[in-house]
Amino acid sequence: MDDLLLDRFDISLLVALQKNSNATHQQLGELIHLSTSQVSRRIQRLQACGIIRKSVALLDPTLIGLGVRAVTYVTLTRHSGDEGMAFEREIAAFPEVLECFSVTGESDYILQIMAASLSDLSDSVLRRLTRIKGVSSIRSNIVLQSIKSTTELPLDHIGRTDAGSRRVRLSKSA
């Protein structure tokens, strides 16, 4: 594993990019008090080491007709063998599944699913889930209202040093 030293400018840059990844390097530089070229070099370094994985457009699901969000709990018949890997391969092909987490507890997986309607959720997603080999049970909760939804990661823990810099340990997968 490698260590990457992030200073207060890197942290401020990451905060700003999480708020608006479309900001120009000049706008970012003015915001965090660095030159455009320094911002560019820092962004390239943060991308190269994997801290910045990609920049995306965040769409409003209701404005594009995806009005139903479900949190779905999936339990497999067995917790070992190839069932888990098979489930994970199959679920990767479901465009409606935004997130899939392997978890401990009562369920084996938790999914976040978006659908246009309750019937779409039931017909095209949940029925397909039940057909995946090894699925024992499925339980879904329909989201009534989103109280908080963000993609911004907290970064306060990075800046907690007297020197103003913090080493971040990067794994080989980064």
UniProtKB/TrEMBL annotation:
One of its GO terms (cellular component) is cytosol. The keyword Transit peptide does not apply. InterPro entries: AsnC-type_HTH_dom, Dimeric_a/b-barrel, Tscrpt_reg_AsnC-like, Tscrpt_reg_AsnC/Lrp_C, WH-like_DNA-bd_sf, WH_DNA-bd_sf. Keywords: DNA-binding, Transcription, Transcription regulation. GO terms for biological process: response to amino acid. Residues 6-67 form the HTH asnC-type domain. It holds the Pfam family HTH_AsnC-type. The keyword Transcription applies. GO terms for molecular function: sequence-specific DNA binding. This is Lrp/AsnC family transcriptional regulator. It comes from Rhodoferax aquaticus.
